[in-house]
Predict the structure.
Amino acid sequence: MTEVAAAPAPTRIVFGTDGWRARIADEFTFENVRRCADGVARYVEQEGQQSKGVVIAYDRRFASEHFAIAAAEVLLARDIPVAYAVHAVPTQMSSYEVVERGAAAGIVITASHNPWTDNGFKVKSPSGSAAGPEILKVLEATIAENGGRYIEQRPFADAEAAGRVERFDPFPGYERFLRRTVDLDALRAADVHVLVEPMWGAGAGWLSRLLGRGKIRVTEIHQERNPYFGGVNPEPIQPHVDEALGMLAGNGYDLGLLLDGDADRAGAADERGRFIHQLEVTGLLMYYLAEHRGLREPVVKSVNNTSMAERLGERYGIKVYETSVGFKYIGPKMIETGAMMGGEESGGFGFGMHLPERDGIYADLLLLDLFLREKAAGHWPVSKALEHFHEIAGPAFYRRIDVHVDRSTYPALKERLQSRLSQSPPSELNGRRVVQTDPLATNDGFKFFVDDGSWLLIRTSGTEPLVRVYTEATSVGERDALVAVGEQLVRGS
């Protein structure tokens, strides 16, 4: 008698700090995308917002547009109209369209900066921000029970012929939206040369087009679609942007502006090809809003972001709030507090005068405006402007490492590490006295401040067998020593 193999259990889908991501054809399948879309449909129905429709967008990864259509067909089967992007667009364009249209939600097929083998599913709330815990609770409950059952679909072409699908191009409206808060004509008139690195992603061509038809010279590389991303992770940090940094050094450029694979993260480099790390960018953007725009509304930052925010807050009288890691926490806190800016360690920045969601294109335009204003004030080139900034905000030598652990032993290590750091936290690190343990960080890792203002943060991952070690220090030596101590704490747990 032939034995029949049991059907595999449905994939357990958990939304992390910003959506669900998995390897294409392994867990990221059409079936699982439909399960996620079913969760969004159930949420929209629960809220009674079907008539408002859902915005669907996608990036340049392998088959993203086909996964997006699969998601749309689930919504259309439940008579929820869909606005569908005419081509790959930056993730934040879905946020813009959700707000502009008053839509019930947004879906984006993207794995952001993950390796090229992955894809992902992001959800936007009606405010345009990343879906918060209250939405994700409904999604995850639906997804947990819909595995293995048939999910109804309506053919995309049929629904489009019936007028239930609208295709949209966000660029014209987004440019008009930008002009409310950014003087694009002044940026276009600047006598500078900017190198733009979109990392083969959905942001390719956007900065060139927004800054075109003026005096400014914009050279943009890696504009073509390449789902392999040139063999690097499309994350605007070193070493993935080393090619762009090498081009900047000594070739007549004044500034480098960087984007990640779906263009919701921003980065920058000076005229010498020196990478401006993400914590510096947080401080620079806060300084810009306070010093050059005269704003004094609160700032929200993740627990793994810079202490320069507090120092700048004291200087300008700005309240700084701290959240757990992820824009699903930062965005709602921005809305709650009326914040002018929210920033996370990974290079994502949202703005109260714009969107309560990350927008790398907008952040890069603000960085360009900042350095042009600093130039007018005599702080030029960009490297000199950075020196001036740190005279005000203080030092920030930052580093992050991922300590990878064997998957089979990770649960036990995670439990031991959390028990040790909560019950017997270190009293000193690298010979310096621990003067503060961040009370919030115990909900999202363990953060220790030493007596010179440097800090160390240790966070376990909820989705991967790794522990992240972060530090921001007053010197390069202190930074590297604290990272080594952090790694030792993890491996010796």
About this structure: The mean pLDDT is 94. The chain has 16 helices and 21 strands. Residues 30-46 form the longest helix (17 residues).
